Amino acid sequence: MKELRMVINVLLVEKKDILLSILCGFIAGITAVALFSASGYLISKAALAPPIYTLMILVASVKLLGIISALSRYGERYFSHRGTFTMLSNLRVSFYEKLEPLAPSIFGRYRSGDLLARIVGDVETLQNFFLRVFYPPIVLLLVFFCTIFFTAFFSFEVALILLIGFLLTTVLVPSYFALRQRKVERKVRESRGVLSTEVTEFLYGFRDLKIYQQLEIKEEQLSKSAATYLQEQERESVHNLFSQATNTFVSLLITVCVLAVGAYLVVNGDLDGIFLAMLIMVSLTVFENTTPMAIFPSHLQDSRQAASRLSSVVRNESEGEALVKQNSFQTDIAPKIEVKNIHFTFPNESRQTLEDVSLTLESGSKTAIVGPSGSGKSTLLQLLLHLYHVDDGAILLNKTPIKDLTDESIWRNTNVVLQANHFFYGTIRDNLRLAKDGLSDREMQETLEKVDLEHFALDDQVLEKGDNLSGGEKQRLAIARAMLKNALLWLLDEPTSSIDALTEAKIYQHIFEEAKNDTVVLVSHRLTGLEKMDQIIVMDHGKVIESGTFESLMERKGYFYEMKKIEQSVFFGQ
Predict the structure, then answer these.
(1) For residue 217, is pLDDT > 70?
(2) How far apart, in whole angstroms, are the C-alpha atoms of residue 483 and residue 512?
(3) Are the beta carbons of 133 and 300 closer than 8 angstroms?
(4) Domain span at residue 263?
(5) Pairwise CA distance, residues 242 & 263, whole Å
(6) 127 and 31, same structural domain?
(7) pTM
């Protein structure tokens, strides 16, 4: 039950609904047994032509028990479902609270489709935990023991048969099918995760699949995944139905045994014949409550696997979030950044992305990080944002280890432009307001002019992911958002790669005017305009191979010098 500990902790918040569900369920079950036992006794008694008042009392008792059973059954359904819906709500909140700090790096460990299947499908699966797993066995146990205790007053032998039947239908038969169920359930969840991943990739990559004429191949893969999922679901359904049929057969077999033993006792004079019909009705009724136990193993295993898949997503929270961080990154001056011998490898990869990287960025300095594609420049920037955790070494902001600072405080005090920037469905105003609260329309319009987007009105529509914007417009809008934030640390990753040279020069002029006293870190493939930088870091294959000012690197005639000569020959024919 270790996998279900998180679910149980969330469930126990609703103690009132749990207790009311158990109480109403017990009353409904025991009154149903009493109702049918009274009916059996009434039939036998009526055959002996008793006084009319005796029959009137029995009939009234049957009606009263029927009313109580119906009301308590309604109460059980009401409180159990209310507790379930509240549990699911609390579970989603609890899961998202644990997931949120991991969100920037979690896609390195999970494909988006699989993650979606866990968040949606597995949480929905856990709705059966309370309704089918948690409280029904408790109710069944109470009802059965009270029934066996009642039956023992009339026949010890029949009570013993009911006890044996209880063990068979609630313990032995379900346990047997539970062992077989694990393999079936695992395959269903795995195939569902594969299908969700395939569907997500198909929808996101539909345009590229059409362009490269690979749509039919992907559709075939998707159809195979769907067919596999349906096949596994069918196997699961057949297994569950066979389990229910077996349990029903065993319960009916127990009732036949009660009839045979009861008849034998009546013949021998050990049991009054008037009670035989009552005992048979008791057996038929009490074993109706064991029917849900046939699918109990399925729901238990399903809940365990769902809880395990959810907990595995947030289990790695200990990577850097296990300790409660109390330090907040706040500064009135531009921060100093120190990177000391860091090593980093992306999740599920063996190749080191960064190896023994060390550098110092003084307060208020302007630093460019350059190098060929795949050299680790963008990764270093993501580590400065603490989107990932270093394997070894340390990163310090104003002499405080970044691992001791809250992520929110780092992001709140940083102007960030990444290679891929997200834009929400709405207006230009809505997307600019993400920078900070309290922005006026005038501030936003002036910033748009600085990035050469004055042709946009603040009420202009932005489609999902900015699909109606060009690549250059997306970058300029992201830069405008960073300018409006006006923090003291700038982390810019290829911010103008899709912008023409004239507009780029204009934008950089505005950036460096606003960041005159700030710390700026610029990742760039382009080597033009770096003469203004205080420091240039040259990286290759995850290592820092050169560093210095533009003049010193050119005089050294090393890697940077060769890169600059190649760029000049390509773009300027020199």
Answers:
(1) yes
(2) 11
(3) yes
(4) 2-197+234-314
(5) 31
(6) yes
(7) 0.62
